[in-house]
Amino acid sequence: MAKGINLLKFLRVHRALNFVHVLIGMLVVKGADFGLPDTLLFLKAWLIFFFLLYCGLYGFNNYFDAEEDRKNGLKNDRVFARGLIGEKTAAAAIILLIAASFLATWLFLRQALWFWFFFLIANVLHTLVLKRINLFLAYFVTSITHPAKFALGVFIAGGRVTDIWTVLLMISMWLFYCQTL
Question: Which of 21, 24, 25, 150 lies in disulfide reach of 154, CB 3.0 to 4.6 Å?
């Protein structure tokens, strides 16, 4: 039981609310017409992009930041940094989740595949390159993923990401996120 809870902590499942942006994007497009098919579409996107892709990416970040996290008083309690999850288990979970997210996107939300690549590239760049070069640039790139989640919701709901109100909402979400850093 404890191993399962530690694995969920490693994958940061508690961050599920970060994907409320997708729902907001869908609601902007659908409004009062948001119904059961839209709810199912949101759940499909949430499972693919949050539970599979982002949990894998959170694990990826924890895996590569473990040494730094051990030295950081705010992060040294993370389960991987403390050694509560083995390297093989962590690597297997990361690979399985990210591969499953690609396959699920390909099979069920192929029209959103470019979002999958964007989220993957932005997070891998953040973890492996940008944090080591320039912390501001690293957080800037990750902050862009928040309005991109909103754009994903707009896109899968059939809206256009180029509408002025959509763009303004995306910018305001990004500014709000930047303010919380």
Answer: 25
Nearest to 57 by CA among 120, 1, 133: 120
What is the SS3 assignment for 10-77? HCCHHHHHHHHHHHHHHHHHHHHHCCHHHHHHHHHHHHHHHHHHHHHHHHHHHHHHHHHHHHCCCCCC
Q: What is the pLDDT of residues 104-125, one digit of tens each?
A: 999 999 999 999 999 999 999 9
Q: For the residues 59-70, what does the mean pLDDT come to?
A: 84
Q: Measure the CA–CA gap between 37 and 117, rounded to whole angstroms.
A: 25
Count of other CB atoms within 10 angstroms of residue 34: 16
In this model, does residue 65 exceed pLDDT 70? yes
Q: What pTM does this model have?
A: 0.85
